């Protein structure tokens, strides 16, 4: 290897390490919020999003909002989902994604499938708090029954609900349906342990 090849290889390796570190840092920060459906990986999302707010305006259910200044300069003004107060309806035509001209929200490549036939992505992780959920404590409830738009993701074993983590998209519609305060369904980012 000559000198030029050596320095080029060193620069490529250094660049790769810097990008990997930036991706890890962005993912750690993103553990505090949930991005809209079909968001790019966090670092790519931050680099692509123009903070135009079109996805917020396009959401017919008021679930998408813009992050405020307290999250830091990198993420301020970027969209997130308000799964603390309402669930994502996983709209058939994905209006929030269609509104994103910058491509920070991007539907996967399909072989001619209609937009409405694209399966929903995992946007968050949902978990039942068994120490709070009424059916686990004795009385029957069932408030969340029928709330899940994904067949088989919310199943019942006897009178107790169970979330199939392989099928669940984390849309939080079961959380929205929960009658308890605080809610017996916890929603957390796909990037980490921060939960609502």
How do you describe this structure in short?
This protein has 196 residues and is of the alpha+beta class. The chain has helices at 3-29, 42-48, 54-58, 95-98, 134-137, 173-177, and strands at residues 64-66, 79-81, 125-128, 154-157, 160-163, 185-188.
Order of helices and strands: HHHEEHEHEEHE
How many angstroms does the end-to-end distance come to? 54 Å
Strand content: 5-15%
Principal-axes geometry comes out as globular
Provide the number of structural domains.
2
Description:
The chain is of the alpha+beta class and 196 residues long. The chain has two domains: 34-109, no CATH class; 122-196, Alpha-Beta Plaits (2-Layer Sandwich), CATH 3.30.70. The chain contains six helices and six strands; from the N terminus they run H-H-H-E-E-H-E-H-E-E-H-E. The strands form three sheets. The chain has a two-stranded antiparallel sheet with strand order 1-2. It has a two-stranded antiparallel ribbon with strand order 3-6. Strand 4 and strand 5 form a beta hairpin.
